[in-house]
Amino acid sequence: MILTRLGHAALLIETTSTRVLIDPGSFSTDWHGLTDLDAVLVTHQHADHVDVNNIGQVLDPNPEARVIVERAVVDMLAERTVDVAGVGDRIEIGDLRVEVVGGQHAIIHDRIPRVGNVGYVVSENRGPTVFHPGDSYTSTPSDIDVLALPLAAPWARVAMTIDFVSAVRPARILPIHDAILSAAGRPIYMRMCRGVIDESIPIEDPAIGEPYTV
After folding, report:
1. pLDDT (average), residues 40-69
2. Can you tell me the distance from the alpha carbon of 155 to that of 206, in angstroms, rounded to the nearest whole number?
3. Domain 2-213 falls in which CATH fold?
4. φ, ψ for residue 168 (rounded to 5)?
5. β-bridge mates for residue 91, sequence order
6. In which region does residue 8 sit, left (phi positive, over 0), alpha (psi from -120 to 50) or beta (all else)?
7. Count of CB atoms within 10 A of residue 149's CB?
8. pLDDT tens profile 177-188
9. How far apart, in whole angstroms, are the C-alpha atoms of residue 88 and residue 199?
């Protein structure tokens, strides 16, 4: 399995026969123009996870790709044929199996209404398992080979991030959801995580667009 970070929450997952993109959001353009996709998955309705104004940049070149989204995103993509990702669903996409977990976005503030959010546990047949949680630390599935870890968000403190890793205990970590961090600030987050997270769990940090083999 090959993973490629495409900016912020966007993650491309590839096997020898299947290509799946998760969360083509507005904080990145690196996913624009991707081809040969079998599916596009969206965790929730926020623009940094689904760029409605530019979603055609990836859906138009991939007319046969399945589009699987959290329920509230259906109306946002009203001109597209989409499938709803329901919590508990198990979806087969080529040689990948996707389990849908979660349900709600993390709490930002009691004055800000919560929205739906689903996470995707993506497994390759007889291969590794990757977990993309969207914007929530609530679901903590086990036996995760790679955790796509939201590094910074308005709803998260560093302590929450570290506790989430401790609960999931993945074999390794791939940081995502970091576009709100400055060039000076991101290394601070990385240093704090590396200083506290169990050293047996490596934090991989390939560059945006650099394929990473699991």
Report:
1. 98
2. 25
3. Metallo-beta-lactamase; Chain A (3.60.15)
4. -80, -40
5. 98
6. left
7. 25
8. 999 999 999 999
9. 32
CA angle, 25 then 27 then 32, to 5°: 60
**Residue 65 to residues 53, 58, 68, 99: CA-CA distances in angstroms?**
19, 10, 10, 18
Confidence of residue 204 (pLDDT cuts 50, 70, 90): very high
pLDDT at 166 over 90: yes
- d(C-alpha 17, C-alpha 96), whole Å: 9
Helices within the chain (DSSP H only):
56-59, 73-76, 158-168, 186-196
State yes or no: pLDDT of 63 exceeds 90: yes
For the four alpha carbons of 181, 183, 184 and 190, in that order, the dihedral sign comes to: positive
Distant-in-sequence, close-in-space partners of 53: CB < 8 Å, separation ≥ 6: 26
Cα–Cα distances (Å) from 77 to 14, 37, 82, 91, in that order, read: 25, 18, 8, 20
φ and ψ of 185, to 5 deg: -80, -35
pTM: 0.97
Which residues make Cβ contacts (< 8 Å) with residue 199, sequence separation at least 6? none
